[in-house]
């Protein structure tokens, strides 16, 4: 009997922390027109002439800090675990493949394996809880670009977002409870940032985004595709699970690049403001990531941790990502067997 295909797709990671491989990864990633959505010539000059040559070696040094001699990149390690655990849970009626949007294993190679397995359908699950053109949108576009060339195209479906998945929310909450949130002065929900212009583009009405006060604070019909609004909703749901009042947590955005305005408030600014208020201990969730990676293990723990201490704080504690949490695997089973909301 034909199997159902499941394609898990995460962002990607260099093949190694060498300067050459990190440059190769950054080049492919940042040349994506959905990631840096500017004039193609300007994008090429920016990426190939400035970012990759100068940022590549610096990023390689950071990757070496988190790279394991036995398991390599934490993102790849946990992504492979998620694939294998999901396959075990789904059983023989399903065929699960893992791909990375950039670098290896490629989406093309994973789709080829599903094609060779003669699956009767393919469900694509981008491993990003919140929809953004630069992440989920890019994955879906790449899959469609490749599959449209097939002579025989099976039934294909896509998961657009799962920011409010109950099992995922509880998995994050369980990870947070291990650190006893009540012993911290404040909780941060730090999400990956996006340029504000990309939020504006996602507003189909062009009357809501950055034009209505607190436009992202509540998820509505007007902003249901908005990355920032979905992030705020995830934070609210996790905070509710933990019994956090609104004054005990903040939503912020990290990893900005360039001089254009990005989604605000910036994590670095929020940390500085909290330190000025006398906050000493911070607990930080990063719910935009389903597996620990450079942005969680290093950016939060090391960079923001050091920054906070210099400002008078005492400790920044990262809440581990979903990784191989059993409830997260349950969520993937649910997404595989069910459909998008």
Structure description:
With 341 residues, the chain is α/β, with parallel strands linked by helices. The protein folds into two domains: 4-162 and 326-337, Rossmann fold (3-Layer(aba) Sandwich); 179-318, 3-Layer(aba) Sandwich (Rossmann fold), CATH 3.40.50.1400. The protein contains eleven helices and eight strands. It has helices at residues 19-30, 40-66, 74-90, 107-116, 133-147, 166-177, 196-202, 227-242, 267-276, 294-310, 326-337; strands at residues 4-12, 94-102, 121-126, 155-158, 186-192, 249-254, 281-285, 315-318. Helix 1 (19-30) packs across helix 2.
CATH architecture of the largest domain: 3-Layer(aba) Sandwich
What helical percentage do the residues reach?
40-55%
Give the number of DSSP strands: 8
What amount of the residues lies in strands? 5-15%
H/E element sequence: EHHHEHEHEHEHHEHEHEH
Radius of gyration: 20 Å
* Class from secondary-structure proportions: alpha/beta
CATH class of the largest domain: Alpha Beta
Salient structural properties:
four-stranded parallel β-sheet, globular, 8 strands, Rossmann fold, 45% helix, alpha/beta
